[in-house]
Amino acid sequence: MNAFCIRLIISSWMKSFFFKIHKGSDQPKIAETNSHNKGRPRPFSRINNGNQHEKLRSSIPPEIFDDQEEVPDEIDMVLSDGNRKNSYSEENDDSQINKGKFVHIEIPIGDPEDSQDVTDYEHIIYRTMRERELRFPNCLVKSELTPKQRGILIDWIDRIHYKAQLNTRTLYRAIGLFDRALNLTDINSENMQVFGCAALLIASKMEDIIPIQVEIAVNCAKNAFTKDELRKKEMQLANIVDFDFAFPTPYFFLGILLRISGQTQESMLFARYVMEVCMTCSNFIDVRPSAVASTSIVITRVYYGEVPWNEKLEGYTGYSLENLSEHIKDAYEILTMPDREESKFIRLKYSTPPFLGVSKFEIPDSITELFV
Question: Where do the domains of the chain lie, and which CATH numbers do they carry?
């Protein structure tokens, strides 16, 4: 009996103590629904009531919950000098064109019924990459490497990429990184392999779900350098390009143009073969990625007996056959050189069954009519 009385006194004292703490609080008070504590208020934060939201809303001035007020769409509206202005108005479009924005004819691409196909954003992505391509400096070789040495190294990077079974996008990003490094730092025959592998390592981290490990890269390169040397060159290369790894590549544009031109598995592999061989040639170093991809499309269409270039492709890319004629000529010359050392492995790779032996295809002489 005494123990029960003591517990009752302590319980009453604690309830009285908490009541005094919250008595002068500005927080909303709601009556306790429990019959044992009926009428005793407690902090709102501890209430678990289905009507909590409505009671809180009723305590706030009604103008905050004015359902008639339109909330501006952050995508369609921008603030300029305190005034709201539609970012997609004709006035804005004209100003963007005047500023040198890329303009092209929009062509439906992809399947609108496919939820994984970004048909609504395809043109926006394409224009963004073309505009970035226009702002991107051309990669003109200023190093000690000769054009042939560079071509052999690109072929070697292709070999390491194939042995490591990396994503296709990784190869083109690695070549782009290496070419930028050629223009910004001194690369010679002694350190070109470690620079090339460092570019592949960075590209793999950008494109592959599971990037290539340093140990595997060194093993694929047959221990031409150590792991520490590769890590140092990776950091050096990242600083040289100012950590700007997101640039357009020919492979990105090739995928879009193939969807417009029409593709099969064989034609896609043949176009990739043409493009990889072109990237080993020094004449294509300062050619924009979209032009490299367009050149590959022209040669592929000629091989399959189609019209080399049509109005859709010209309107979408902004290139005419006349614009591409010099690139087509350079591509034809290197594709018809079977013993060319700079593309030795690429030819071997695309001659195998997984690549449908497309490197064995005979390049038609009718291509010469496009640049004569």
Answer: 137-241 (1.10.472.10), 250-370 (1.10.472.10)
Please say whether the dihedral angle defined by the alpha carbons of residues 347, 348, 354 and 356, taken in this order, is positive or negative. Answer: positive
Amino acid at 199: A
What is the DSSP code (8-state) at residue 275? Answer: H
Query: Under a CB-based contact definition with an 8 Å cutoff, are residues 102 and 288 in contact?
Result: no
Q: For 7-19, what is each residue's pLDDT tens digit?
A: 555 555 555 544 4
State the CB neighbour count (10 A cutoff) for residue 329. 16
Q: Where would I find the H helices in the chain? A: 2-23, 52-58, 90-98, 122-135, 147-163, 168-184, 192-207, 214-220, 227-240, 250-261, 265-279, 289-303, 311-317, 321-335, 344-349
**Can you list the residues of the chain whose pLDDT is less than 50?**
17-98
**For 44-68, what is each residue's pLDDT tens digit?**
333 343 443 344 334 434 443 344 4
DSSP-derived secondary structure letter, 65: G
Residue whose tokens read 């690109």: 154
- Asked if residues 153 and 224 have their Cβ atoms less than 8 Å apart, the reply is no
DSSP per-residue letters across 5-26? HHHHHHHHHHHHHHHHHHHT--
Q: How far apart are CA 277 and CA 255, in angstroms?
A: 17
Measure the CA–CA gap between 5 and 86, rounded to whole angstroms: 74
Tally Cβ neighbours within 10 Å of residue 302: 20
| Rounded Cα gap, residues 363 and 254, in angstroms | 19
Question: Which residues fall within 8 angstroms of residue 192, CB to CB, at 6 or more apart?
Answer: 145, 149, 150, 153
The label of the residue with tokens 């969807």 reads 259
Tokens at 225, concatenated: 């350098």
Residue 86 sits at φ, ψ, to 5 deg, of -70, 120
In single-letter form, the type of residue at position 28 comes to P
- Strand partners of residue 340: none
Q: What is the pLDDT of residue 142?
A: 65
Count of CA atoms in the C-beta half-sphere (13 A) of 332:
20
- pLDDT tens digit sequence for 214-258: 999 999 888 889 999 999 999 999 999 889 898 999 999 999 999
Q: pTM higher than 0.85 for the full model? A: no
